[in-house]
Specification:
The protein is of the alpha+beta class. It has eleven helices and eleven strands. Strands 1, 5, 6, 7 and 8 form a five-stranded mixed sheet that branches.
Length: 294
């Protein structure tokens, strides 16, 4: 088997938060999303949904010529990518297998598109698949807990007090999603003004957790990425079931930031951050679509 290059680079388009470890610096959170992520033990740097334990270099010279997809079992229930006839492995040295041929073909396309150097940041589908195999499979309940925890501090429950135009936008865009979550999952969430914390009903949170737990390892890996990127479990669930597409999910989660851009313009650093978040949501949606295409 062929081992993967490092899939933990901080500039990857599917990267936003990761659990902190001893000795890491922790910048002061500057946005509501970052504050809520910090409260859940996450820090700016990598995504909840991407692999963060790999210890190899993020770039290396291309060492293969041919890329192909092969069935990993006799009944066609799993597929893997072969490089010069040898299967790819994850950073934890496990076979990188996925349950859908369409997804395997797309992952093979990422490897085929590499130039003289392998750029991990250009392989978002590979990274999400590796997360499913290396992280989610080892502790699915813990992974579900991390995703479901966003329901307790969901972005769309935190409303502005002013200006009135932003308040109206939030009600118009966010409230229908809360109503949908109530009607779909029986989970009513309370709304608060500003950053003051609000305690959500435990029954509502338990039912949202059950909704997350219904997804398989591969879906959870993608769901984790979009939950981190949007700061909203409700937005992630809505995208997972087709209530929102990737474009809408990004716009909903960036409603506050987009309003500020309209007023004051957008700095290069802020634009780059928004581009990363947009790419995270886009690649998660693509992963789910390919996974379900069979």
């Amino acid at each position: 088997m062929i081992g993967l290059v490092d899939l933990s680079g901080n500039n990857h388009p599917c990267v936003q938060y990761v659990k902190t470890t001893a000795g890491q610096s922790e910048p002061t959170p500057s946005t509501p999303l970052e504050k809520r992520a910090r409260e859940q033990g996450l820090a700016p740097g990598q995504s909840l949904g991407t692999d963060a334990e790999a210890g190899l270099v993020s770039r290396m010279k291309r060492f293969y010529k041919d890329v192909a997809v092969a069935a990993a079992d006799s009944d066609g229930g799993a597929f893997e990518v072969h490089l010069d006839g040898r299967g790819v492995r994850t950073p934890l040295r496990r076979a990188l297998q996925v349950p859908a041929r369409a997804l395997a073909d797309a992952i093979a396309g990422e490897w085929h598109a590499q130039g003289d150097e392998i750029a991990a940041e250009a392989m978002p589908l590979t990274r999400i698949a590796a997360t499913a195999v290396d992280r989610v499979a080892d502790d699915p309940e813990g992974y579900v807990d991390q995703i479901a925890a966003f329901g307790g501090t969901d972005l769309i429950c935190y409303r502005a007090q002013s200006p009135q135009e932003l308040v109206v936008r939030q009600v118009r865009v966010w409230q229908p999603l809360l109503d949908w979550a109530r009607d779909t999952y029986g989970s009513e969430l309370f709304v608060t003004d500003g950053l003051l914390p609000v305690e959500q009903p435990q029954g509502s949170l338990s039912r949202l957790r059950a909704a997350v737990a219904a997804y398989d390892h591969y879906e959870l890996a993608a769901l984790g990425v979009v939950t981190s990127a949007s700061g909203s479990l409700i937005v992630a669930l809505a995208m997972a079931v087709g209530r929102l597409d990737a474009k809408s999910a990004f716009e909903v989660s960036q409603l506050d930031e987009s309003y500020q851009v309209e007023l004051w313009g957008e700095e290069e650093e802020a634009r780059a951050r928004r581009d990363i978040l947009r790419a995270e949501i886009d690649c998660s949606a693509a992963f789910l679509a390919l996974l379900r295409a069979g």
